[in-house]
Amino acid sequence: MAKVEPKPRATAAEEARPLYVGGRWADETPTFDVVNPYTGDRVAQVHKAERATVEEAIARAVESFAETRRLPTYERGEILLGISRRIAERAEEFARTIALEAGKPIRDARAEVARAVSTFRIASEEARRFGGELLPLDITPAAVRRVGLTRRFPRGPVAAISPFNFPLNLACHKVAPAIAVGCPVVLKPASKVPLTALLLAEVVAESDWPAGAFSVLPADRQVGDLLVTDPRFAVLSFTGSPAVGWDMKARAGAKKKVVLELGGNAGMIVDETADLEHAARRGAVGAFSYAGQVCISVQRIFVLSRVRDRFLDAFLRQVASLRLGDPLDESTDVGPMIDDESAARTREWVEEAVAAGATLLAGGRPDPARPRLFPPTVLADVPRGLRIECEEAFAPVVLVERVDTFEEALGRVNDSRFGLQAGVFTNDQRHVWQAFETLEVGGVIVNDAPSFRVDSMPYGGVKDSGFGREGLRYAMEDMTEIRVLVLDRPG
């Protein structure tokens, strides 16, 4: 296999970080600044992909597909396992990079890196057991001697576009399944957080994955759109906002497989049988981890009337205990929002709700000198139809609402154009099954927040939350096509 020399470790004093383009480190393009959301200081400069760079990456991906599609299973499995181990060896470097460029608290950044290690390990295991099936075809007299075999084959090059909020693990959820099935990948990370993806490129470059079969291209949206429209890509996998994702699908072309994970305004239900202290703890974590900038962050909590006050007391105690501050401080629970625009939008939506009659129970008033440090905010009695209630907040804001029946709670969760995941706190098995059969979401999480996710499970949504599923085996299915072989037994 063609190999590339690993790029030397970057330091803060070095020149701008180069791109990784189909096996080479490219530094001939313009640069842009990567900014620390907490301090506002420049973390690094990074070279930005141009049209010629993208064209080179696509051409290398197409060329390398002839090799990657024929890699035997054991080699793909070993490549993935090697990448997993190398990420683990550089775990603290990855975590610190995430904290610096994304503003994620260092403890959460370490947890993300640990998940990425697991993501590649699971992909290695799935590659080894990703098989087909034997089909009896003698269900009709005309096929009495025939038998069918199925096998999945890689579709082709994958265009992967990842978001800022999980700059490592959500990129891994596109790269790892592609390697597992033998598809080249061109990855465009969010422009605010390219450094983590470039670290991943260093790790992949040190592996035995063919050099031309992976690229990392920080780029503006106009250049990044080339990945969306180019017909040489067989798969487009995008994680991000609904408006951008559906527009991409419309422009991607009819023949391209498109997978969209687009977020939501996740609902959480607490009934009379729930452990209220546990629900309050997990609800606070689910609402305010990474300043609520998570697709499955808890945004709406519906509590049965008989336990609403007790739950709210416990929940507000949990919220008050959260520490807001520097992401590199080990004691920080909630760090900054990604930029001033996001913080300003959040404040506008909260003020709109209060002006309309909502009750502000906590937070809501950031220090004007540090607007990105938006305090954990709790609202109650929010009128229906306001933006904070029906749109995706993607912010450290949660609504706590009283409902009279479990059926009303289910209806309120479903009364949304989104449907990613929902959480149900209950010890009533009837409510568990009722929620599973009724809620219009991709996943129902029992006795935990909707932000719960294990990297092997199918993850994705319905309605405006997208379609297709991440989670290693499920993403591998989207990146492959099934083919049947029919054999005629002599006799």
What is the CA-based Rg, rounded? Answer: 24 Å
| Portion in helices | 25-40%
CATH homologous superfamily identity of the largest domain: Aldehyde Dehydrogenase, Chain A, domain 1
The CATH architecture designation of the largest domain is 3-Layer(aba) Sandwich
The count of β-strands is 22
Beta-strand content: 15-25%
Overall 3D geometry?
globular
Overall residue-averaged pLDDT value: 95
- SS field, number of helical segments: 15
> What is the CATH topology assignment of the largest domain?
Aldehyde Dehydrogenase, Chain A, domain 1
Spatial strand sequence of the major β-sheet: 14-15-16-13-12-18-19
CATH class term of the largest domain? Alpha Beta
Structural class: alpha/beta
Write down the domain tally: 2
Regions with pLDDT < 50 over 5+ consecutive residues? 8-13
Distance between the termini: 45 Å
Write the layout of secondary structure elements.
Blueprint: E1 19-21, E2 24-26, E3 31-35, E4 42-47, H1 51-68, H2 73-89, H3 91-102, H4 106-129, E5 134-136, E6 146-154, E7 158-161, H5 169-181, E8 185-188, H6 194-205, E9 214-216, H7 221-229, E10 235-239, H8 242-251, E11 257-261, E12 266-270, H9 276-288, E13 298-304, H10 305-320, H11 340-355, E14 359-362, E15 377-380, H12 387-390, E16 397-403, H13 406-414, E17 418-419, E18 421-425, H14 429-438, E19 443-446, E20 462-463, E21 466-467, H15 472-478, E22 480-488
Parallel strand pairs: 7-8, 7-10, 8-9, 10-11, 12-13, 12-18, 13-16, 15-16, 18-19
Antiparallel strand pairs: 1-2, 3-4, 5-6, 6-22, 11-21, 14-15, 17-20
Helix pairs in contact: 2-4, 2-5, 3-4, 3-6, 4-5, 5-15, 9-10
